[in-house]
Specification:
single chain; mainly alpha; two-stranded antiparallel ribbon; 2 helices; 2 strands; 58% helix; rod-shaped
Length: 89
Amino acid sequence: MKNIHDVLRSKEQQLQQLQQQAQQVQKEIDTLRSAIRLLTEDSEEATEHAGSSSSAPGMIMRPAQAAGQAGKETLVAPSAWDVTKPQFP
């Protein structure tokens, strides 16, 4: 039979580890939100400069990068090169 104090100590350690993991996940979420905000601002600026020449302004068709999505195309925000690259007739 286990000692109740050992079980309690073990559970407290598990709780502390889970709290640390939760804090790390929260930091990652905050970082992703910051990145989304920056990307959204960049995307909005790019669409203002690019004009509305396509059916979805500021968006371009690009092949999916994930291995499980081979052959599919997804709608993605343009990169800086897509906006500034020379346009030939």
